[in-house]
Amino acid sequence: MSTGSLLTRLGTRLIGALARYLAQPVSRPAASGDVLALSPRLQPGDVLLTEGSTRAAALARRLTRSPWAHVSIYVGPLEPGDDSRCIVEADISAGVRAVPLSEFNGQRARIVRPLGLNETDRQRLADWLVSHIGAPYDLTLAWALTRRCLKLPAQRTIVQDAKRFICSSLLVQAFLFVGHPVAAGEARYVVPRDFESAAGFEVVTALG
Asked: Are 168 and 188 in contact (CB under 8 A)?
């Protein structure tokens, strides 16, 4: 095995270990109310801002100076059941996946709704998101955002990988697909809190 191949393998293992470490849960006071109570109010395309419950979430809140560490999106039930998978998100260890609403139990949450989307737009949005389940997490972009939040000089120009996502870039790309941009500036630097104040979105309800 060449030195280059060995270093690549070691780098991959280190990145994987870091992702698993950051995905570990940390204790945090539980929010009042039940996140499942939000279910009747949700429409496909609704954005779910949550505080998170992991080491990565704690770091994101600190870096962005926001109560919101994570953003995901409601696509509608993907199978029968009272608590079926209905939320699509980009998770640091699992990549893009679908989870039930109960995944966010105990967390403070806020629903932000895109304005002006018709039923066809919402369905196209949901279909695009579901089609990207299984895509990997974009650790390079996550690191670039971390450096930006810390006001460190960029190491190099970041070219966003169209097949890898962090939680916010997944939603940015999905909304661009239906012609509903989240940000007027550099879309790759959108963070969860930006959805709360973005033009074309409104806060519907909050929990906790």
From this structure: no
Contacts of 116 (CB under 8 A, 6+ apart): 180, 200
* pLDDT tens digits, 25-60: 666 667 666 888 888 899 999 999 999 777 877 787
As separate numbers, helices (DSSP H) first and strands (DSSP E) second, the chain gives 6, 6
Residue position matching structure tokens 């539980």: 30
For the stretch 6-9, contacts whose Cβ atoms lie closer than 8 Å and that sit 24 or more positions apart, written own/partner, are: none
Cα–Cα distance, 142 to 166 (Å, whole number): 7
pTM for the whole thing?
Answer: 0.84
- Quick check: helix, strand or coil at residue 95? strand
CA geometry: angle at 69 spanning 164 and 37, to 5°? 105
Instruction: Identify the residue with better confidence: 9 or 111.
Output: 111
Q: Which tokens sit at 94?
A: 């699992």
The whole-angstrom separation of Cα 25 and Cα 15 is 18
Q: How far apart are CA 144 and CA 142, in angstroms?
A: 5
Residue-level pLDDT at 124: 97
Overall average pLDDT of the 119-132 stretch:
97
Cβ pair 47, 114 in contact under 8 A: yes
Model confidence at 154: pLDDT above 80: no
SS3 63: helix
